[in-house]
Amino acid sequence: MYALIREKREVTRSEIGKLTGLSRTAVTARVRELTARNMVIEHEHALSTGGRPATLLSFNAAAGVVLTAAVGGSRTRLAVCDLAGDVLANADIDQEPGLGPNDLMPDVVKRLDLMLTESGCRDARIFGVGLSLPGTVDQQRGSSVDTPILSGWDGAPLIPYFSELTDAPVILGNDANVIALAEWRVGAGRTFGDVLVIKASTGLGAGIISGGALQRGAIRAAGEFGHNKTAAADGRACRCGDIGCLEAVAGGWALVRALRQEGRPVQNLRDVVELAHGGDALARRLLRDSGRHVGEVLAAAVNLLNPAALVVAGDVAAAYDIFVAGLRETLYGNATALATRTLQVVPAALGDRAGVIGSAMMVLDQVLGTEAIDGMVAASR
């Protein structure tokens, strides 16, 4: 029932009964539990036109907060979100490459703690913490499993860093997956049930929405296309330790390296994009070539998954036109005409906020899911 109220935002008791099949007594009992916990607010319909006004049940997004941290190779985005996943406060931590968890995570926790005060949420109930990382994550161990971009993080327990801030659950997710979750629900992919969202930043990854569900794979490693082999990278060393990976020619770190070798003072992909917008011919060529290499590798994924939309996210989205000019060239040239007949290639709609919004949604799906709410209500009886 709570899931229904969350989805519709406002609904009457009689509508709940019709949609769920619950008796009036059962609806009343459940509403009593939810209103007592301030999870649901009951109020009269403001547009009543006469007679006894209808009573509405509204989802109370202000009943608590979720804290989120989207860790990247060159920047970590932080946010305090309400229970609808809307951002109440956000901040960035720009970081030097190679920082380990002991260098970064204490700053993340300290900044989130400060943001609770800045957002006026110091006394709010914290329902959970969402932590997204580039690469595969292991929720049971509370660590990353295979994250070449973040040296020294694999296997390091991350959940204990939050113990002094909150005892709420800490949920880990892959960065491309949480971006896909956000773009699918409220962003560029919201009208589609089958979406392929690529994140092109320091590294490359994809989030797969198929049949209206996020696909994580058997060991939560789905979407790691940045380490597919490509002829364009033959003989080139990748940061993962292998040779010939797509990232070695198309990842943000590879573009930064190429520009530095030509004397450009760039630190990250955002600097590359700025150079390109300033008219630097080499930066523009590298971004277009990156799109060309990505499109060539993704053609097989488009054939296999047949998405309705391909959403371009990550730092490269700020140079969408340049990047996608190259991507379209090889994607449409290598994928089948049938798979691309109605395919839409679109820019991400949520920009830099996608990671923290998606991380909040990841947490809310768990802590406000049917099983969690049923357990909460049962424990109070």
UniProtKB/TrEMBL annotation:
Protein's name according to its UniProt entry: Transcriptional regulator, ROK family
Organism: Mycolicibacterium hippocampi
Alphabetical list of InterPro entries matching this protein: ATPase_NBD, ROK, WH-like_DNA-bd_sf, WH_DNA-bd_sf
UniProt record similarity statement: Belongs to the ROK (NagC/XylR) family.
A Pfam family assignment: ROK
Gene3D superfamilies for this protein: 3.30.420.40, Winged helix-like DNA-binding domain superfamily/Winged helix DNA-binding domain
